[in-house]
Design a protein that fits this description.
402 residues, mainly alpha, membrane, cell membrane, Chr_Tranpt_l_chain, Chromate_transpt
Length: 402
């Protein structure tokens, strides 16, 4: 290799180290959910490091809000790709994801064999889940279903999801909402600003989108022809990551329909883990690491985590080269509006079943959940503080102290 090639390789390696260090720092310190993560990313990558200007960052956020998957993680992946190609995207994902994924997997392994239903502090985590999801429904409803047509769509989606509870129903509701939105909410879109340059060509983007679709179709078929825990986990978590809009909280009903009826995880263990997920930094999608570990140990945690994030990664790689054309399409914007309203309804249905029905069984449970909700919404306490409070109150309830 000549000196110019050696210098490029050295600079590329240094860039990857820089991406890894920056994303790991964010993975360890980014509390507060997807919206807060976007603020952390802006401060680190736009203001401090100047990897992207404000308008370019806004474009990337818009793209990731449009796609299914974990929006904040996809923004981080996109920034890594813009900075250093596909490998940069992988490094950015690993840095942001591994801290919380490891914490959640270790929590699941530590709980192995614990009688979850009888543990007071774990029951408190289930009540934390009630408060967290109620807050998410309230916030998302205000921004994504604030007028009569969208609110009606959200309520209808919730009703259908509760009356016919299955993963197929959820997928059908999302598809129907997209079609309805393309007709009802289509609107003119302003000309886009200067496009963000990314080192991914349209051919690579098309291959990534084709792989995304192929896996979505092939994994369920392979699961039927070659039964096994590994393939079943991959299919379930890949499908959840591929079909969820609206971020981490909305993946809850998708994952619950996959892991609880199959007997991989009990309802009590599921909700205890979801409550604990609020106390860790990084993306909420690392709840998959907890479920994978609870179902199949360390290997299950790694497989579930990779599977739930893979669709989002493929979609970012596939969409970046085409985004500037897609974002000017009025019907595409309308479809997204309809889908976002429907996911508010899906989350509302999940608030009732499985969360409310499994956690709130006595007046004291309701009172505790109401207090936790007030701490989140009115007192603006950080989620980790509410998690600790919920665990303490659950323990105190179990001993009859409150």
């Amino acid at each position: 290799m000549n000196s110019a090639g050696s210098s490029r390789a050295h600079n590329g390696f240094l860039r990857l180290l820089e991406i890894g260090a920056a994303s790991a720092k964010l993975g360890l310190t980014s509390f507060g959910g997807p919206v807060a993560h976007l603020g952390y990313f802006r401060d680190e990558y736009v203001v401090k490091r100047k990897w992207l200007d404000e308008r370019g960052y806004a474009d990337l956020v818009a793209l990731c809000q449009f796609l299914p998957g974990p929006a904040s993680s996809q923004v981080g992946i996109g920034l890594g790709i813009i900075r250093s190609g596909l490998l940069g995207g992988v490094v950015a994902w690993l840095g942001f994801t591994l801290p919380s994924a490891l914490a959640m997997a270790l929590f699941a392994l530590a709980l192995h064999g614990t009688p979850v239903a009888q543990a007071g502090w774990l029951h408190g985590l289930k009540l934390v889940a009630v408060a967290i999801v109620a807050q998410a429904v309230l916030g998302m409803g205000r921004s994504l279903a604030s007028d009569r047509p969208r609110a009606t769509l959200a309520v209808a989606a919730a009703a259908f999801a509760l009356l016919a509870p299955s993963a197929v129903t959820q997928v059908a509701l999302i598809a129907a909402a997209g079609l309805f939105g393309a007709w009802r909410f289509r609107r003119a879109v302003e000309a886009p600003p200067e496009p963000v340059r990314v080192p991914v060509g349209r051919a690579a983007g098309a291959i990534s989108l084709a792989l995304f679709a192929a896996l979505l179709v092939a994994l369920p078929l392979l699961r039927q022809t070659a039964p096994g825990m590994g393939l079943a986990l991959t299919d379930s978590f890949y499908r959840a990551g591929a079909l969820v809009f609206g971020g981490g909280h909305v993946v809850l009903p998708m994952l619950e329909r996959e892991v609880v009826p199959a007997g991989w995880v009990s309802p009590e263990t599921f909700l205890a883990g979801y409550g604990a997920a609020q106390a860790v930094s990084g993306p909420l999608f690392t709840f998959a690491a907890y479920l994978g570990a609870a179902a199949a140990g360390g290997a299950g945690a790694a497989l579930a985590t990779a599977a739930v994030f893979l669709p989002g990664f493929l979609l970012v790689v596939g969409a970046l080269p085409f985004w500037n054309a897609l974002r000017t399409h009025a019907r595409m914007q309308g479809a997204l509006t309809g889908i976002n309203a429907a996911v508010v309804g899906l989350l509302l249905a999940a608030l009732y079943d499985p969360i409310w029905t499994s956690a709130v069984r006595t007046p004291a449970d309701f009172a505790t959940a109401a207090v936790l909700f007030g701490l989140l919404v009115f007192w603006k306490l950080p989620p980790w503080a509410v998690v600790l409070t919920g665990a303490f109150l659950g323990w105190a309830l179990s001993l009859g102290l409150v």
